[in-house]
Amino acid sequence: EMAHMRKEILIRLIALCCFATFITCEKKRDLTIVESNIQIVDANSQTTEGVGLETLGGVFTPLITKGTNVPFEVSEIFSTAVDNQDQILISIYRGNAARVTDAKFLGQYQLVQIPPAGRGVPQIRVTFGVTSDSIWITALNETTQAPAKLIKVSK
User: Which residues on adjacent β-strands are paired with residue 94?
Assistant: First the structure.
């Protein structure tokens, strides 16, 4: 029975790795450049500033922190706050501040065409990345595995 259990765990790990590879390949297909030709990486290939989002109350919530080795990417799952919500607004900043008023505004992006569903049901994986000269974002509908539509609202 122990051998059977190990085999099942191995099969699940292989499936999980294949799934993760699929998501990585899929999401990189529709990258949206948030900012390019930037200087937020030092000589050691580490970020000199954080990249993050505005959360409730104007708080700067870093997803990529100062000192992160690049290239780097991080994903966050977004969902809806009310039934049948078809859009989600994401405000992106960079800096080392605690509040967005003290960080550099990079832009607002709208996740649109979210299929009607109950509050919290849609699962949109938004991936943020930083390279030596750019910050990018992409989105994937976790349910359908299709790229989610992301529109730049403002800079």
Answer: 51, 104
Residue whose C-alpha is closest to residue 129's, from 64, 57, 81, 60: 64
Give me the phi and psi of 100, to 5 degrees please.
-70, -25
Say how many CA atoms lie within 13 Å of 123 toward its Cβ: 5
Tell me the whole-structure pTM to 2 decimals. 0.72
pLDDT tens track, the chain, 155 positions = 555 444 444 444 443 333 333 333 333 447 777 877 777 888 888 889 999 988 888 888 989 999 999 999 999 898 888 999 999 888 999 999 999 999 999 989 998 988 899 999 999 988 989 888 888 888 888 888 888 888 888 76
Give 75's strand partners.
Answer: 127
Sign of the dihedral defined by the CA atoms of residues 59, 24, 36, 109, in that order: negative
Tokens of 21: 């590879």
CA nearest to 36, candidates 106, 124, 115:
106
